[in-house]
Design brief:
heterodimer; A: 461 residues; mainly beta; 16-stranded antiparallel beta barrel; elongated; disordered N terminus; B: three-stranded antiparallel sheet; 34% helix
Amino acid sequence: MNNNNNKLQSVDVSLSTSNSLSSAFPLPSLSRQSASKSIAGALALASCGLFANGAQAAEEGSFTDGWQVDAALMYYGEQERVQAIEAIGTAQKTFDDESTVDLKLVVDSLTGASASGAVAQTSSQTFTRPSGNGQYTIKAGDTPLDDTFHDTRLQGSANGSWVLNSDWKINGGVYGSKEYDYMSIGLNGGAERGFNKDNTTLFFGGAYSFDVVDPEGGRPVALSSMAIRDHYNSDDSFQAAFDATRQRGSDNKQTVDLMLGVTQILNQRWLLQANYGISSVSGYLTDPFKVLSVVDESGTTEDIRYENRPDSRLKHSVYLMTKGALDSGVVDFSYRFNTDDWDLTSHTLETHYRYYFSGSFYGQLHLRYYTQSKVDFYQPFLLSDEPLPEFASADYRIGDMDAYTFGVKFGHRLAGGHEMTYRLEYYQQNPTSDEPLPGQLQELDIFPTQKAITAQFSYSF
Amino acid sequence: MASPCELLMATDDVQIAATMLKLAIEEVSRIEQKYSRFIPHNPLWQLNHGLGKTCTIDAETSKLLHFALQCFELSEGLFDVTAGPLMQLWRFDGSAHIPTQPAIDRAMALVGFERLTLSETSLHLPEGMQLDLGGIAKEYAADSVAYLLAARFATISVLVNLGGDIACPVAKSPPWQVGIENPTKLDTAAKVLSISKGALATSGDTRRFIEVDGKRYGHIIHPRTGYPVVDAPRSVTVIAPNCVTAGMLSTMAMLKGKAAEAFLAEQQLQFTVYR
């Protein structure tokens, strides 16, 4: 470096305001006499141009006082089973850069058939509809599906978060959903506190929900036998038998959730989150539409019985997640462990990887693996020579299974700050039961694999 | 900003203080969101990922880059916002890791403000080059907040402190007392400077350096050699009319190595140098 005992030189510091492109700047040669003395003045003068207009107006789209509105349309379809169309609208208002209010409205329409829990047979089978009005017949070899499944559900929620001070942030919300034979309302609240310059955040939260179950045709009497019209001489005697399998009035279910978690920023790019949750559910937990086949030693169905589940369930979950910012993308990995006093345990491994092709276009991969072991009262069928248990369910959703999800998502940012995303996911669920099968059941697909596709399109205004 | 920020306000009106704080936080967040190198697909990221195409820039970015150009020219190429590839080679994490010469040569090939084409509304950044406004954005944010508050509350003295970059837009009597950290004894004030109106910035390697064979390399990289400056002071604090000027002068002084004090003495400003 040359020393600064040079004589004063004037330096041109006028900020170019012409619109001409200032092409490559010639690099001042190092041998040039440096004009140290004037540098401070020149810098001060040059910096004036930075603040000529006083405050810089915030750009459109940041810290707006308006609402951020998103709309999405989602299709979910299981192979030959349930189809759902869901419309989702969300609106978020940010009062300052921290406090927020979120509103969400979801309307979904479900149609299609779902597995009733009864097993396939080598001959055709007839079942009474859950309402008691009419019956449906299942072909030989087919998994019995209840095709009366169609429903429209409306869900709404409002959530807010407020910054109390530099350490504490609280949130709260309400939720409600209504469908033809089911209603749910709930509220939630939580708080988080930052430590260590907000590199560590502890949060805890709680939620309470109250659900009313009022299925058409009433709730079945636990483990009662399904009345079939063909077994009765008249409509009246059938109706009396059907009514005997029903409990009058609605029932309810209450859920209390508590969660404790910590988020730790590891470095500039990575963070780690760990949660522990406990959930206590009590009340009517049985599925009024699910049944079990009672089979003899040849695997032939002798009777169909309505399922019954315990009236309380205590669940624990542990969740670990790490998320990292890469040079041109974001990646996360998570693991969840669930266990409960119904003996169901599950493990979930999940990852998302998002890659930015450009500043306004990204692609995202989603992989998920899920495995669960059955609840202690899960049975794919009952045996006629064994005493009836207190609790039983053949609902495949609480049986042994592995499931995989593979998804892709693309997002575009459009001019004016609008954003469009498309998502396509494939889901496959493989039951993994090792139950010995009697007689004819060995020839049938008692534990069918289930496949589903989800497609979603969303637009942010 | 990844550093402690504070706002001192000479008022006992809680309402005014809250408004000022909100303004300050919003402005700092706005600048951070826009110019941080660590936020994917923000405006800076988009410029850095323009793949050699000419990008449109807004008025604020244009002004900031024109100022960076002035700094580049006034420092004879020593202050260079395109020096990112070099900075990333040097990891100041206390390990004795020195980049290899070929790696330094490769990075040097992607450095040089003179290779940019800048106008009022557009910027052409050759492919592989990138901008790092880390050496200027924090000072700019401090000034910006200071001007914003002074424009709205012309009579209330405030001290904006963004991790040691300090701006005081409205004269205060008695003056603010600012402690300068002693690099050999961190977190203790070695010296107190009085400042009524103006700004103060510090450059130094007090917290970020690597030591190899007893030689301490500080975090100021010389864009012409690709190596940290040898014999740079431990820290340089400068008082100037505004924060970007103070920051630039203290950085330039660091780059002058042995000649830091001589350079600052010529500028006829208040300064403190620790070696």
